[in-house]
Specification:
466 residues, alpha+beta, eight-stranded mixed β-sheet, five-stranded mixed β-sheet, 9 helices, 23 strands, 32% strand
């Protein structure tokens, strides 16, 4: 993908929102310093919580033209007569209705769609917002490069981490806002459209095909995706979880060689982390090269360069699958806790390496500890700051934190903790405090020093013994 300067290998953040009122009954809107999360102060919105998005979309590949109707079901949490949604300025809003009444007053600037209602809604009021919009979607540019909707040579992809969802639909674009999704996408018939959830139906009429998906489990907006290309779909296995491959026909042979262990990785992760959290899993391989794979709920997206048949991408295959537990089912409430996604996914790579006959987790830990020790130590991964939240140190030191915890607890307690972590917080928003509190139940000794040394201080602690 173009202009991606950070090492995204999937993963990111929701929680239990502390949404506030101004004290006058008005939602606090528009002040970027008063946002939900200081890492992305302009993203996310106050005054309501979304429970469902229904997206009815039509996309013309040749002209990169997107037309959409988004129906957003939400509940107010304060008295509300004005609210905002995140939506790229590249898309033109044609009409907005709230609870069936056309909104006469709305503005769309600085990637915010702000709507003023004729009558205010009390706390707990149901709000059904319908936004009709269209335009030529393009990525949203920020400090992490360009994220969101992007054209391919033939087709398109969506890579929204961390704030690109607004490039293609109006949303409450912060991971703390998890919701169910219904996605209908109509596109030119030679192309397949893949979205989150289970395919409910497909119909072809004239030169266009409509694909309808249902994502029941709550999902953060940055994990919502549509992938469009001239793909074929095959089922790799149905047990223990249905796994599908969506690939260009020319890559079939290399895919079979590169992803030969996909089902075995799934089996190992279920053993270590507990049941797979979604009904099925799909792997999409684009016909274009991508700098890095893309994480989405229920599926992962790789470039043709990750599918050359050499087996060199197996650690990435493991990493992306791990995010289905750590990042998709359990999603962060604060971006500063990004290590809970990337550290876990990176450590999953090391666990799979050991299971598959490669370097053991201990050897991997030693290797990356020595690399970190020989480089500058200027990052506390428990709060790395927005500019560096995708720094490789967060990945590797996050994984080392888990290895230190494993050596402190012992294998039985460590893996029991991981299974309880994914079970107790399934589909929830999480924080470091949630994990450290749960880990304390498995430790005969206080863990405060471990968390402080590995997460809060910049200096590298001694290698975990023995």
């Amino acid at each position: 993908m173009k202009d991606q300067t950070w090492g995204r290998i999937g993963g990111l953040v929701p929680g239990k929102a502390g949404r506030r009122s101004s004290g006058t009954g008005q939602p606090l809107l528009g002040d970027p310093l008063d946002g939900i999360d200081p890492y992305l102060p302009a993203n996310g919105n106050l005054g309501y919580r979304v429970s469902r998005y229904d997206l009815d979309l039509e996309y013309r590949v040749a002209t990169n033209r997107l037309s959409g109707t988004a129906t957003i079901t939400a509940t107010t949490i304060i008295t509300l007569n004005r609210f905002a949604l995140d939506l790229s300025g590249a898309l033109k809003v044609d009409r907005v209705t709230v609870n069936g009444t056309r909104a006469r007053r709305f503005s769309h600037r600085s990637n915010k769609l702000t709507v003023t209602m004729e009558d205010e809604l009390p706390p707990g009021g149901v709000m059904t917002v319908v936004v009709k919009y269209s335009g030529n979607p393009r990525p949203i540019r920020g400090r992490w490069g360009e994220v969101g909707w992007e054209e391919l040579t033939e087709g398109s992809l969506v890579a929204s981490q961390p704030n690109g969802a607004a490039s293609w639909f109006p949303c409450d674009d912060h991971p703390i806002s998890k919701a169910a999704y219904g996605i209908s996408i109509t596109t030119d018939s030679p192309f397949m459209a893949v979205a989150n959830g289970s395919l409910q139906r497909k119909r072809t009429k004239a030169a266009q095909t409509t694909w309808v998906y249902e994502q029941v489990e709550p999902m953060a907006s940055y994990l919502a995706t549509i992938q469009i290309g001239q793909y074929t779909r095959q089922t790799l296995t149905t047990k223990p979880v249905p796994i599908h491959a969506v690939i260009p026909p020319r890559l079939r042979r290399d895919f079979d060689a590169e992803f030969v262990n996909q089902a075995r990785i799934m089996e190992a992760f279920i053993e270590w982390f507990g049941p797979y959290p979604f009904p099925e899993y799909s792997v999409v391989v684009t016909d274009d090269e991508l700098e890095i794979p893309i994480e989405a709920q229920g599926l992962s997206i790789f470039g043709a360069n990750h599918c050359d048949g050499s087996g060199s991408s197996e650690r990435l295959i493991a990493h992306e699958l791990a995010h289905q537990w750590f990042g998709n089912s359990l999603t962060l409430s604060r971006w500063k806790d990004i290590w809970l996604h990337e550290g876990f996914a990176c450590y999953s790579e090391w666990l799979w390496s050991e299971r598959s006959g490669g370097l053991t987790a201990e050897a991997q830990s030693r290797k990356y500890y020595d690399r970190l020790a020989s480089s500058s130590q200027d990052l506390a991964i428990g709060d790395p700051g927005p500019a560096r939240m995708f720094d490789d140190v967060v990945y590797k030191r996050g994984a080392l934190t888990l290895h230190a915890l494993r050596k402190t607890l012992g294998d039985n307690n460590f893996f029991a903790l991981l299974r309880e972590w994914t079970r107790e917080y399934r589909y929830s928003s999480i924080s470091t405090e949630d994990f450290s509190g749960l880990a304390a139940r498995y430790s005969p000794q206080p863990l405060h020093d471990l968390w402080h040394q590995w997460l809060e201080q910049k200096a590298l602690p001694p290698y975990p013994g023995p």
